[in-house]
Amino acid sequence: MTRVDSMTFAFQHADLLRARATAVDFDPHLHGTYSVVVVTHGSAHIWSRRWSGIVRAGEVFFFNPFEVHAGRSAGGSAQYCVLYPSEAFLESCTATVGPGEVRTIRTDVVARSRSTRALVDALSAPVVDDAPVEESLRRVLQECSFSVEAPASTPMSIARRTCQLIRRDGLRSTRTDDLAREIGVHPSHLVRSFTKTIGIPPQTYVRQVRVARARELICAGFGLNEVAQMVNFCDQPHLTREFKKVFGVPPGALSRGGYRGSPAAGR
Questions:
Q1: Of residues 17, 163, 192, 159, the one with CA closest to residue 89
Q2: pLDDT digits (tens, 9 = 90+) for 72-113
Q3: How far apart are CA 2 and CA 192, in angstroms?
Q4: In whole angstroms, what is the distance from residue 8 CA to residue 19 CA?
Q5: pTM for the predicted model, two decimal places
């Protein structure tokens, strides 16, 4: 079960949402953007299908958009900051990708170094200044390994094709039978293949894709009732339950603490 002692958000920059948290456990979940996690105190065991290992204070680790991951602190609560850079921010740090190409972070963890210390110091300042945070993050990302692939060159497993369909149609009702019919496999085979490869069942993935979109809409300034309708949850309590499974806090924490700007900017 996800157990978060505290989490606060900051959203001064359209391309870089920040969160600061103290947590014990995070169940398998995903985000719709890149995630850069900076451990500031304690240590944790992190798991994803791409990598797993122990991370410690001063280290930085990464997840790609829609990469399912989970974590558990190693003795007491771990404290960390999460930076959610947009594709535009990544574009400013690394090579440009062409139309239809996919950029993937291959680095799992950056060990303690001068660049990671600068990022920790910038995030730990009494009054966090965007400029040092962004500059330090760029330096860390420039140390990372990336790959850029055309979708056609990527192995198109059942799970990968299912993920693509869900991300394309995730805001409407996406039934497992419909996904299996479009891919051309039996529903039970799809569920087994997807769960083994991705780490969560396809319908859980569907709900988390909607939560990822909800987070974007909340940051754009939309109200919670409106967001619940836009991402096809039954109502705001339904959105709240699913949001807490991913972030450990209700969406009101993001709308109160993280929003800067005009709602019109997101329309």
A1: 17
A2: 998 888 999 999 998 888 888 887 777 767 788 999 999 999
A3: 24
A4: 6
A5: 0.75
Q: Which two tokens stand for residue 56?
A: 């410690």
**How many angstroms separate the CA atoms of 109 and 59, rounded?**
7
The full length of the chain comes to: 267
Bridge partners, residue 13, by sequence: 16
Query: Is the pLDDT reported for residue 136 higher than 60?
Result: yes
Least confident span in 130-139, 244-253, 254-263: 254-263
**DSSP percent split of the chain into helix, strand, coil, nearest 5:** 45, 25, 30
Residue 170: exposure state from Cβ atoms within 10 A (0-12, 13-18, ≥19): buried
Structure tokens at 175: 């039934």
The angle, 0 to 180 degrees and rounded to 10, between the axes of the packed helices 176-183 and 202-219 is 110
